[in-house]
Write a structure and sequence with these properties.
Blueprint: H1 5-37, H2 47-81, H3 85-113, H4 121-146, H5 151-162
Helix pairs in contact: 1-2, 1-4, 1-5, 2-3, 3-4
């Protein structure tokens, strides 16, 4: 376990903040996805359509990057700090399960950065919606296994050190 209550609280607060910020980014991503999904017919000449698509793609890439380079690493660090070998094993499996969605999301981004042809966008958006839903489910499991599972230990440690 972490050395002392102060270190534990600092660690816990930092991880909570990262996760909260990331989940807010997820919410924004879903809003932008819904805005795009509401468009009946995409027109490459419509600057609003292009702007919404670009904004969605930028946020999607940011979300994926923060997940891989901040959140997943913090969750793994937390699992290590709590010596949670089972949580780390499950977390590693979940990261592996998430990887194909990362590739699909980045491919979507690359495709629509390189083209003004929006004829297949409706179909592609539908597929990306499914990819996002599966990804979010795996990410939520990872948070549960490597973060939320440690709440009782954190509370117990805090109470022990407070007395």
């Amino acid at each position: 376990m972490l050395d002392n209550c102060q270190t534990l609280q600092e660690h816990w607060g930092g991880v909570n903040e990262i996760i909260d910020r990331w989940l807010e980014e997820r919410r924004e991503l879903l809003v932008k996805y819904c805005e795009l999904s509401e468009i009946d017919a995409f027109d490459g000449n419509n600057t609003e359509h292009g702007s919404k698509l670009q904004s969605f793609c930028e946020l999607m890439v940011d979300y994926v990057s923060v997940g891989h380079f901040e959140v997943f690493e913090q969750l793994a660090s937390e699992g290590k700090a709590f010596r949670d070998s089972e949580g780390l094993r499950v977390g590693a499996e979940l990261v592996e399960a998430i990887q194909p969605s990362t590739e699909a999301l980045l491919d979507f981004n690359d495709k629509y950065l390189a083209t003004d042809d929006l004829q297949t966008l409706t179909v592609d958006l539908s597929a990306i919606g499914e990819v996002l839903a599966q990804r979010f489910e795996s990410e939520d499991k990872m948070i549960e296994v490597l973060h939320n599972a440690h709440v009782p230990a954190l509370l117990e440690q805090s109470q022990t050190n407070a007395t």
